[in-house]
From TrEMBL:
<dbReference type="GO" id="GO:0002143">
    <property type="term" value="P:tRNA wobble position uridine thiolation"/>
</dbReference>
<dbReference type="GO" id="GO:0016779">
    <property type="term" value="F:nucleotidyltransferase activity"/>
</dbReference>
<dbReference type="GO" id="GO:0016783">
    <property type="term" value="F:sulfurtransferase activity"/>
</dbReference>
<comment type="similarity">
    <text>Belongs to the CTU2/NCS2 family.</text>
</comment>
<protein>
    <recommendedName>
        <fullName>Cytoplasmic tRNA 2-thiolation protein 2</fullName>
    </recommendedName>
</protein>
<keyword id="KW-0963">Cytoplasm</keyword>
<dbReference type="GO" id="GO:0000049">
    <property type="term" value="F:tRNA binding"/>
</dbReference>
<dbReference type="InterPro" id="IPR019407">
    <property type="entry name" value="CTU2"/>
</dbReference>
<dbReference type="InterPro" id="IPR014729">
    <property type="entry name" value="Rossmann-like_a/b/a_fold"/>
</dbReference>
<dbReference type="GO" id="GO:0005829">
    <property type="term" value="C:cytosol"/>
</dbReference>
<dbReference type="Pfam" id="PF10288">
    <property type="entry name" value="CTU2"/>
</dbReference>
<comment type="function">
    <text>Plays a central role in 2-thiolation of mcm(5)S(2)U at tRNA wobble positions of tRNA(Lys), tRNA(Glu) and tRNA(Gln). May act by forming a heterodimer with NCS6/CTU1 that ligates sulfur from thiocarboxylated URM1 onto the uridine of tRNAs at wobble position.</text>
</comment>
<keyword id="KW-0819">tRNA processing</keyword>
<comment type="pathway">
    <text>tRNA modification; 5-methoxycarbonylmethyl-2-thiouridine-tRNA biosynthesis.</text>
</comment>
<dbReference type="GO" id="GO:0032447">
    <property type="term" value="P:protein urmylation"/>
</dbReference>
Length: 468
């Protein structure tokens, strides 16, 4: 059962002061107490470090579950989430937030925490005399990927039922649930989209390329839901462990230039800015919380892709087993790369009732981005920022070929793993890409885009097709 009411015993509604204390405490306790835990100077090694009253959650020597009782563990995790939200101005009272919920433990916790924040904001609203305080809106999105990878019907039914029951069991304010097929990136005509999606995936022979393409399409679907329903933030449950895997796999795939774009708290290169409030939480901790609080989760049986991504996941899992701080170390190290200028929430509108504290935080945060990289051109397929010098070289090399439209607007990694090698298959791929990717390719194409546009005229959507 979801933790969703005021009867919940889980400290969900404690006040801000408590959380601040928890944050500081957890920082302080992290190192010294871990040493103390190992050498047992506190006498009773079964008791929680924070409250010194209750039993620890587990006997693990590393990880917060081995240091805290379940209450302190929970409030520590929520504090990390809250810290990420507040110090990056992720959610302000006038926002409408879409939480991407796959059914897995990480996005389940993201949904739970966003919900708890909203409930608290709603309580403050009801308590305020003039009711002038805004409460941000929350919606939930689930992307049904049956058309992209074969999933047994009963399994997808079970997943959707669980998603529906989780969302409907959350206490008010009511949250809209959007269950959308991944092929909707093409148009509202689903059977047409399904056909195109199948053909598109068939043009990609590399297993890793196929898997990555599906995740790019998933992001496009989420963006589409958000834009069409008036959401201005997209919250993902991406945690430290996921980011650590992404850091290694991107490095392996030669995506070093664009890597800093994907691993920040905020990614505003999209029409609807993406926020990662669980960036500082480990998958193990989020799993643990779901178990401890009985948060319902559901996961599809994974069809093994046996590509780079799976290989890297098992490699990082092995590293983490050897040393439980490895995932955090990988993310912290990659975090030292210079971010892009879109790695923050764009300037907040002065007049929309945004509290002063949020604006101040934003100013402070923007100050941190003085030395950030700027990028105007993005990969047509993965939306990764392009290193302009690479693009120029490529264009001069392939000038005159129709295929240079895609080759000249794709990062080297997508070229290697997703783009077919011969130009006829490249043309086919271009004709099968969803409109938003084609638009990106056109935007990024060289200044003589008119002549190129003529060459690929038959693949372009006419205005009325775009509208439908
Ligand atoms: Zn405790
Ligand atoms: Zn790319």
């Amino acid at each position: 059962m979801a933790c969703n009411s005021s009867a919940c015993q889980s400290n969900c509604y404690r006040n801000q002061d408590d959380e601040a204390t928890v944050e500081q405490d957890s920082l302080r306790t992290n190192k010294t107490d871990r040493l103390a835990a190992t050498y047992g100077d506190s006498g009773d090694t079964h008791l929680c470090f924070k409250c010194k009253a209750k039993e620890r959650m587990s006997s693990s020597e590393e990880g917060d579950d081995g240091r805290f009782c379940s209450d302190c563990f929970r409030s520590n995790l929520f504090a990390k989430f809250r810290q990420a939200v507040n110090s990056n101005a992720m959610i302000s009272p006038s926002d409408k937030v879409l939480v991407a919920f796959s059914g897995g433990p990480c996005s389940r916790v993201a949904l739970q925490f966003v919900h708890e924040m909203q409930v608290k904001a709603h309580k403050n609203f009801e308590a305020s005399r003039d009711r002038s305080l805004h409460v941000f809106g929350v919606g939930v999105a689930y992307i049904d990927e049956t058309s992209a990878c074969p999933i047994p019907l009963h399994e997808i039914d079970r997943t959707i039922q669980t998603i529906q029951s989780v969302v409907s069991s959350l206490s008010p304010p009511i949250k809209d649930l959007h269950i959308v097929q991944i092929e909707s990136v093409y148009s509202s005509n689903l059977s047409d989209g399904r056909e195109k999606l199948k053909k598109l995936l068939d043009t990609v022979s590399d297993v890793t390329g196929k898997e990555d393409l599906i995740s790019h399409l998933r992001m496009l679907s989420l963006q589409k839901i958000a834009a069409e329903n008036g959401y201005n933030r997209l919250v993902l449950g991406t945690c430290t462990s996921r980011i650590a895997c992404h850091v290694i796999s991107s490095t392996v795939k030669g995506q070093g230039y664009s890597l800093p774009a994907d691993i920040q708290y905020v990614d505003a290169r999209w029409e609807v800015p993406v926020a990662l409030p669980l960036r500082d939480c480990l998958a193990q901790e989020l799993n643990m919380l779901c178990c401890a609080d009985g948060l319902k989760t559901v996961e599809l049986t994974k069809t093994s892709f046996s590509g780079i991504n799976d290989l890297v996941s098992s490699f990082v899992a092995l590293l983490q087993e050897e040393n439980p701080s490895r995932e955090s170390t990988i993310v912290r190290t990659a975090g030292k790369l210079t971010p892009f200028n879109f790695s923050r929430i764009p300037d907040l509108n002065e007049s929309n009732g945004v509290p002063l504290a949020t604006k101040r935080r934003q100013k402070r945060n923007n100050f941190k981005h003085v030395n950030s990289l700027s990028s105007e051109t993005f990969c047509a397929v993965c939306n990764g920022p392009l290193n302009m010098s690479d693009v120029q070289t490529l264009r001069s090399f392939e000038a005159g070929q129709v295929s240079s439209i895609l080759a000249g607007t794709c990062c080297s990694s997508c070229q290697f793993q997703i783009l077919p090698k011969d130009s006829i298959s490249q043309e086919l791929l271009l004709s099968l890409l969803p409109p938003s990717m084609v638009a990106r390719a056109m935007h990024g194409s060289p200044s003589n885009s008119n002549s190129l546009r003529e060459k690929i005229q038959e693949f372009l959507l006419s205005d009325d097709e775009v509208e439908s």
